[in-house]
């Protein structure tokens, strides 16, 4: 028996205490001390269960009532004034429930995946910000809600027996991350919720550094200025641990995975990006995208079937802060875009108010208006005819070296996209959302090489004209409804459509084809080469993929700390992949025309089970039935989370602020992605991505994940994260160029995927660490990741393991953001990012290792093509700096200006190598480099 408090009883006084996960016995002692009252209790009776109580205006007796009620006890007050905690001896009453909505306090925008906690019960809001808690004890309760980038909120509720409380919880933005990428910190929810997925969002002006100290949280700072963007639209993802950022020729890589081993989804519909060319080409408008969530190794069953992970993006559907209409426009050296948002009240339905929020956003590239000089120079340097590949594919024999002396170069880049989205909200618990997106992109090049005169005369066969054009379009449409139908049940249903079409046409002619005699003037020569090329039936590659899906899901709260989600999904995917070799290289290149329709049905179950105050277990299972084969494939998954209590220790080591997650399982992918090397002589687009829903002749790619993460946050200003992963890929695929280039093969085009896909095995292990330091006016971070990613095929490289072409064995990042001047509504942000990558292999253009060995070429001079691991690129080191500011224009209107200078040190790090004949005719490596310094000014005006 313990007695805490003053020497004599006093009346309960107002106290300023808030308990968040504090053991009940400690809370009682704190109440006695702060309130000046005597409290007698048995430690065995009270125990150490955590409690969440307190708020403004609470008295000591209010706190005492909350704490004892949270642990199922009661109290009595003796005539001496002493409060004695006793066992509850009341008749059982029907429990109540809570079903509500978490929104942004200023915009009304729902906050998906917000965390809500009531005593020892926890709920995670769905994609529309809705949550439900069942089995709640009647009486006064404290509901805590938290979301990254927002101030946590405590709401007092009165729960009636058998009744359902329906609160709307409004969270206010607080200090958030520069660069628009944040990692969840330790708030009212368990810190382990920050592990397994990273979150980014569009920086809003309210998320400003320099706020009063009482508003500081564990999140990094920002000043509301424009955030750096990436070609996936919205926030740049490069700073995330385990996520390899884009270079000019590489897609994102999640923890050693190839670019196609994760999905990029917009409101749930997949977007396909077959080619990346630095900042000049992107899929989604930054003005249209509000939030990006990256699910990495060990992700749950509800996030789908993918080998590496999922990148989820969501449309901006926030309510304008100042009036029903808001307009924003943005322009930089690469593109210009605009966004319109509208919010309206549309009466009432069943007693609930109806609100309609609409978004329209559009963007267009400016390459035809202004061409950034550094990028244009880089493209011109890259866009050269590769003499080794051209000679290997030339039907009439090797081409002479002088035929590749450049005379004229031209490259065109163009893209445009349109986003339309709307959400209808009926009260706080029901909503219907629809969106449509369409994007187009074009990359084209034309180059003329005249050749060098010999003895004053031009070889009539030397002039060359090459053209290469790649175009793709994406269409995505979604419709989804969600509702909280009771205190226990949340349900949702929807449909999504994705359409992707890629076409690549290329060819080349020389002076022989144009009938030149070597005496023509350059303009006549070009005209005759052009006429000869126009008369050809150009080589034509294409890939089309349509996917339609219907889905339904439900989440049920089984009690405190126990939640189960179930769902079903039906998918029909139709694709066509064709290679028609009527043009350049046709004597060696075999026709391919593969069309396939895939139908599959998936059932999904995920659970979230709290085991005491420290442990949470998340089992999951995904079952997929394929119509073509009749088999059912299982994907079991499991994650375990640990959140240390303030009193926990590991021997002499305190564990306060420590959280951990261990996850793993089986992962499959029902559409494979392969890299198609461009057989044309131009080097600007060396390869593109092709997507194929697997047919009945091949098994779906598969992977096994094991991932662990530890987060240590000793204070609101320091955070350190360590992650490790191991992946085994029993089955992945690449294009079989031996089959595609078989000259003696039978004439019918290849059609079955087993005839042109090459099975491979993969494995990847890695470890990474990231440290962050926050303050009201600056933030710094440092990260280091070390990984080993390999592939093996029985048919290539003597069946040995070789590094993957996209592997980055060592990757280091540094970041610094300083609010140099300003206040909450305006300021000057200075930012710097440094990136270093070491250990890259596969230095030659991919076609050297993929195409030439299939043609029987095992070496080019001293360069062996069967050992890509021996061809190493020099380290890539880059430093980017920028200035950004927000200028208030009155009300919610503002102007945002950002000046970014990429590669400020003007380094020309190597992209890859091509081979050229040296003075003595021996091939030597010629490095194609990244572009040098790249300044960019971006202006956004919001009205």
From TrEMBL:
Gene3D superfamilies: Carboxypeptidase-like, regulatory domain
GO molecular function: carbohydrate binding
TM regions (residue ranges): none
Name of the protein described by the UniProt record: Secretin/TonB short N-terminal domain-containing protein
Domain of life (superkingdom): Bacteria
Pfam families in the cross-refs: CarboxypepD_reg (PF13620)
InterPro entries with a match to the protein in the record: Carb-bd-like_fold
